[in-house]
Amino acid sequence: MSSDEPNVDNEKQMVVDKTPIWKIFAVASIAAGVQFGWALQLSLLTPYVQLLGVSHAMSSLIWLCGPISGIVVQPTVGYTSDRLKSKFGRRKPFITVGTTLICFAVLLIGFAADIGHSFGDNLEKKVKPRAVALFVIGFWILDIANNMVQDPSRAFLADLSKHDHKRMRLANGLFSFFMAVGNVLGYAAGSAPALYKVVPFTKTNACDTYCANLKTCFLIDIILLVFVVVVALVAVKEPVIDKVIDDGIPFFTQVKTSFKNLGRPMWCLFLVTAFNWIAWFPFLMFNTDWVGLEIYGGDPKGNAGEKKLYDMGVRKGALGLLLTALSLGIMSLIIDPLSKLLGGARRTWGLVNFVLAAALASTVPLTKAAEKVRRHLPPHTPPPSNIQNGVLALFAATGIPQAATYSIPFALASMYSSDSGSGHGLALGLMNLAICVPQMFVSLISGPLDKVFGDGNLPAFILGAISAVISGVLALTVIPPSSANA
């Protein structure tokens, strides 16, 4: 085994003063609050921004803010939190500030239509420029804030694990599980057609039922997020670090040095992760839009019947995402023993990528079947139950590879940084580059690619399926077996 690989003997060592599981559980639960908001973004915001008048092709460019902010924010936050000397801890200040910004951002997004109208948006026109501007600003702030919370939370878990590889795998598995919990809550809220009635003031002249539901969901998100963050930060003390990193090296110099010093296992991990996210991101951006447009045959800018059909499809997609979250939660709880059964994380990650490829490829026959049936149905009629069930089954299947995506690469990155003695925050921040750069690539090409093929989502999904196969093959061949089994 090369010196770049984790020391698997750590698995056999007795770790003194292990962190109680309930503390890891409490910190991991922050993922539920963050992911609730992400679930709303992924299921409702692409359709929402189109209702504000942004074209399908342009809506993909809005998603650029996520990867761009991730490239800048996560490494910066990780680097700074590794070196922060504060009486409140290293990770907690960033989690607190990020949570505050998330609350502000979701309020700005949810009330964008109302504020835009009060500043002069014409409700009779398809494009509401002021509402779109507020939405984009809120969307950028939200993605920046999410990155400010997620990376320090994962680094907090790595700190609590105290170089114990088994605890690191457990912590990342629990983080993935709570992401599933947040997804379940978010998608369940997003698929409820009359949730706004709980908070009736959310429906206004500028904000219809769909918009009011989104606004209500965000208000619920604020309550959940604040609750889990306060519980975690009050109940769990950060572990005492023997020596806070204080090398005096400027940030960009440190990042450059870190890239130069990355061992082969980490570079292999980056490569597999990059292709994995090229596979995921088109589906994450456009899954509910695909159901509304291509399975149900609706149009967010069409007549009343087409809009209603599109809304029905989006809600069916949100129900599908709820099934994704449920299978993600189950898989998150069993992924560690499953990896041992299959021969290690490398093999598990590789095999489930082929499941992802099959799911993405199946969007083609489902779309073609829906189009064929639609020719023989009355206008504005939903697809038959067999096609709807096929769509739901596809969504449920994606939860299996999603559990691996949300846990395995982060667990391996934590192990590599722990064994090399580098800071968990910076290592996980650099890991995020392998996620964000592919997302930028997909955001830039998916809109034009879909436009060339008639404003549909299938070309981007097929690109994702091909990338999933590549990621699976690479996971099985380039990640060192010993490190994957660590």
Describe this structure in words.
By secondary structure, the protein is mainly alpha-helical. It contains 18 helices and no strands. α4 packs parallel to α7. The N terminus and C terminus are likely disordered.
What's the arrangement of secondary structure elements?
Blueprint: H1 21-28, H2 30-51, H3 56-62, H4 65-83, H5 92-110, H6 112-118, H7 129-161, H8 165-191, H9 209-235, H10 251-261, H11 264-295, H12 304-342, H13 345-361, H14 363-374, H15 385-420, H16 424-452, H17 458-477, H18 481-484
Helix pairs in contact: 1-7, 1-8, 1-9, 2-7, 2-8, 2-9, 2-11, 2-12, 3-16, 4-7, 4-16, 5-7, 5-9, 6-7, 7-8, 7-16, 8-12, 8-15, 11-12, 11-13, 11-15, 11-16, 11-17, 12-13, 12-15, 13-15, 13-17, 14-15, 15-16
Largest sheet: none
The percentage of residues in β strands lies in under 5%
In oligomeric terms, what are we looking at?
single chain
Gross morphology is globular
> How many helix segments?
18
The whole-number mean of residue pLDDT values reads: 81
Distance from N terminus to C terminus (CA atoms, Å) equals 12 Å
Low-confidence segments, given as residue ranges, are: 1-16, 482-486
Could you estimate the helical fraction of the residues in percent? over 70%
Question: Could you spell the SSE succession in H and E letters?
Answer: HHHHHHHHHHHHHHHHHH
By DSSP, the count of extended strands is: 0
Transmembrane segments: 21-40, 60-81, 93-111, 131-149, 170-190, 218-236, 266-286, 318-338, 350-370, 390-413, 425-446, 458-479
Pathway: Glycan biosynthesis; sucrose metabolism
Pfam families: MFS_2
GO molecular function, one term: sucrose:proton symporter activity
